[in-house]
Design a protein that fits this description.
It is found in: Endomembrane system; Vacuole membrane. The protein is mainly alpha-helical. The chain contains 20 helices and two strands.
Length: 486
């Protein structure tokens, strides 16, 4: 338990009329305010000794009566060792929630999608649909394995970052496969749209659904200002970094008031994008240090208090857990399935664009983000429904921040190394949709409360963007390249 400094009571004075009593009252007021500020500034949970003491105070036996191994948090102790195939399958299938368990019913589609790629390679539409569906249970299992791993960690702030990172692995794999299998710069347009689409899906669709699920059950939910303000501020700064290279290009290209050819402006935009990517990665490391090192105690207490709001907490703790070996096995299986499905899915995107008239913008902005973040979305919605709104907000906004400050810059730098023209020169429609969405969500988070009305508004904005993306045409260069290929 955290030890707080005991505040001595302020002396009270009788209401004596006169100049001296009024001056004494005025002089006492700033002193009292300064003491309150000092009390707020002194945070015992920031000290390393407190964190060490809190770790030592953890119980030796968990909720189920299992002896807790050294280095394992009681909430994640399984009471077993090694691998038990039957318990492994049973625990993975039941997952963490009913919604997550329902997605596991789609596992039979995974071998079907992989087999169709080898047996019937000419069935392009069937391969795309089956592998698109197969990505859902594979990504869900990866997210579940990440949750089981984070349960075993002592610190909640680090656990949330780990969960968010595992949830974003699918996105990173898809980006890298799209980049590596790109015919020239054809897939670059899809990647650019997918970067912004992932952020929009998290902030509008997922966060909106969280507000709806939590609002319908709990009426109004309140979240901590530290979680909301740090997340909204970071995503706004990250969005500015993403769209400024696009504004630079669109303003200068074919502008007679400035010197410079279109080729030079394009090259300068590429250099600016690479510089922004490096700065973004540094910003991401600072953000991780803020959450897990300098202010980890504050976030730990917020998330820990959130967990105790769950009315089903005792039932959740009583559920069987995976052993560390089984967690690693689940990660290995899910990563293998996600990688194979991602490759087969990406290979069919040109067919969908050319033969069925689906635009690059709709594939990247809507289709790819919907399936890549399924595990993160299911987890956040379940947390919001259980009144753990701070945890839900941390997962949703954390995933958006990771996409903007880590995944997108990494793709730009890897593209630089592979010789692809991967930059932040987004379409103005995509850039405007991103900034307007960030401003809208920031406005909803400002009062520190959420309800189902705000959730519906977020989802409505996302549906409007999806409709616009469906009718958004492909770039002329992409269409010409497709025609030459035929």
């Amino acid at each position: 338990m955290a030890t707080h400094r005991t505040a001595h009571p302020e002396p009270t004075y009788a209401p004596v009329m006169g100049r001296r009593s009024r001056s004494r009252s005025r002089s006492a007021r700033p002193t009292r305010e300064s003491n309150e500020k000092t009390a707020r500034a002194v945070q015992p949970h920031y000290s390393r000794s407190h964190r060490r003491r809190r770790r030592n105070e953890l119980p030796s036996y968990n909720h189920n009566g299992h002896k807790v191994d050294k280095g394992i948090h009681p909430d994640g102790e399984s009471g077993r060792r090694g691998i038990n195939p039957f318990k492994f399958v049973k625990i993975c299938f039941k997952s963490t929630s009913t919604l997550s368990m329902m997605t596991n019913l789609l596992w039979p589609v995974v071998p079907v999608g992989i087999a169709l790629h080898f047996v019937r390679p000419e069935w392009h539409l069937a391969i795309f649909i089956t592998n698109y569906i197969a990505m859902i249970p594979a990504a869900n299992m990866l997210g579940f394995a990440g949750q089981e791993f984070s349960r075993k960690l002592h610190h909640k702030a680090i656990a949330v970052v780990v969960e968010t990172t595992f949830g974003s692995v699918v996105e990173l794999i898809l980006f890298m496969v799209l980049l590596k299998t790109s015919d020239g710069d054809h897939n670059v347009h899809v990647i650019k749209a997918a970067i912004l689409g992932s952020i929009l899906a998290n902030m509008l669709l997922c966060l909106g659904t969280c507000f709806i699920a939590g609002g319908l059950k709990n009426d109004v939910q309140e979240f901590h200002e530290v979680v909301s303000e740090s997340a909204s501020g970071l995503i706004l700064v990250a969005s500015v970094g993403l769209i400024l290279p696009a504004i630079f290009y669109q303003y200068l290209v074919n502008n007679a008031d400035y010197d410079g050819t279109a080729q030079l402006i394009t090259y300068n935009t590429l250099k600016i994008s690479r510089g922004v990517a490096i700065i973004s990665l540094i910003g991401y490391l600072i953000y991780i240090g803020y959450q897990t090192m300098t202010h980890d105690g504050l976030f730990h207490e917020i998330y820990e208090a959130d967990e105790h709001k769950d009315a089903d907490r005792h039932a959740e703790l009583a559920k069987p857990k995976l052993t560390m070996t089984e967690v690693l096995l689940a990660l290995l299986i899910s990563l293998a399935c996600v990688s194979l499905v991602a490759i087969f899915l990406v290979q069919e995107i040109p067919f969908m664009v050319e033969e069925h008239g689906v635009s690059d913008a709709f594939v990247g902005l809507i289709l790819v983000p919907l399936v890549e973040k399924i595990a993160e979305h299911v987890l956040a919605i379940d947390e919001a429904y259980d009144n753990q709104i701070n945890m839900a907000l941390a997962h949703v906004m954390g995933a958006s921040i990771q996409t903007a400050l880590f995944n997108a810059p990494l793709v730009v730098l890897v593209g630089w190394g592979l010789g692809f023209h991967m930059d932040y020169n987004f379409a103005i429609f995509d850039a405007a949709a991103l900034i307007l969405s960030v401003l809208a969500v920031g406005n909803f988070l400002r009062d520190g409360k959420s309800n189902y009305l705000e959730g519906m508004l977020c989802v409505m904005v996302y549906v409007i963007i999806a409709i616009c993306a469906f009718y958004f045409p492909d770039p002329v260069s992409s269409t010409a390249a497709s025609a030459e290929g035929h």
